[in-house]
Structures are given as structure tokens and as C-alpha cells.
Amino acid sequence: MSKESLDKFRDSLHQTDWSAITNLTSAQEKFDNFSRIYTATYETCFTKKKIIKKQSNSKPWILPWLAGACARKNKAYNTYIKFPTLQNKATYQNLKKFTAKHVKKAKLQYYSDYFKKYSSDGRKQWQMINSLLSRKRPSKKCKN
């Protein structure tokens, strides 16, 4: 929400003809009309922006082309769920097999390159091994 949009919204509300609400007798009808007018004004003043959430690189072996393949597989899965035909099932299974194979290869390549790169640095190797095993350092507790 920007200051300009908020000002535009306030001005629109001040200029709105509310007589359609005050002329009604039923409280429910008054509320329904108020809600409709208020929502319409809000939607015209504040445009919805699609927020693209950038994913963290929790899986560094997923390359951009592989992420695209995973997206196509997920789209094929959604199509298969909505329209469960044999053709859609076959398409999804082929993409699933393709992505699983290439994710496995990319992961293997990533870790082998990592351990080759740090072959002389035991500390880095153990840091990676511990992160793969989800082991954390024990916390130091103060004794009173």
C-alpha cells in the first residue's frame, strides 16, 4: 500500500454515494450493499501485485533447467489429477522418471565435486557430512 493509493482510496470513499444504503430498511441489506461498495472501491484503488517468492538455495544441485523440468512434471501431475486419462498418466510418469534420474545425477555430481574441491580440507568435509546427517554441535550450557 502506497501513500498515493491510500489517499486515492480515502477520496473515493468520500465521493461515494451512500444514499443507496441509508434508504434500505433491513440491516442485512444495508451491510451487504456497504460491503459490496467498499470492496469494489478497495479493489479499484489497490491493485493486486503478484509476489514472486524467491526460493532459497536449499538444494544447490538443482540447476535452472532441472527446476524447469520439475515444474513441468508438477504441471503434468496437476493435469493428470484433474483429468485422469491414460495419456496424462503416461506423460506424468515419463516426466517423473526423467526428473528423478537427473536429480539423482545432479546431486551425485554436486557432492562429488564438493568433496574433490575440499579434498585437502578435512574441516569442510566434516561440516558437509554433519549437515547431511543433520547433526548439530552440542550447545554449551552454563552451570550455576
Q: Describe it for me?
A:
This protein has 144 residues and is an all-alpha fold. The chain folds into two domains: 3-45, no CATH class; 64-132, no CATH class. It has six helices and no strands. It starts with a helix and ends in a 12-residue tail after the last helix. The model has no long low-confidence stretch (mean pLDDT 86).
How would you concisely characterize the structure shown here?
The protein has 6 helices and no strands. It is an all-alpha fold and about 140 residues long.
Biggest sheet overview: none
Secondary-structure element series: HHHHHH
Which structural category do the helix and sheet elements fall into? mainly alpha
Cα shape: elongated
Q: How many β-strand runs? A: 0
State mean pLDDT (0 to 100 scale).
Answer: 86
Please give the structural blueprint.
Blueprint: H1 3-15, H2 19-22, H3 27-45, H4 64-82, H5 86-117, H6 122-132
Helix pairs in contact: 1-3, 4-5
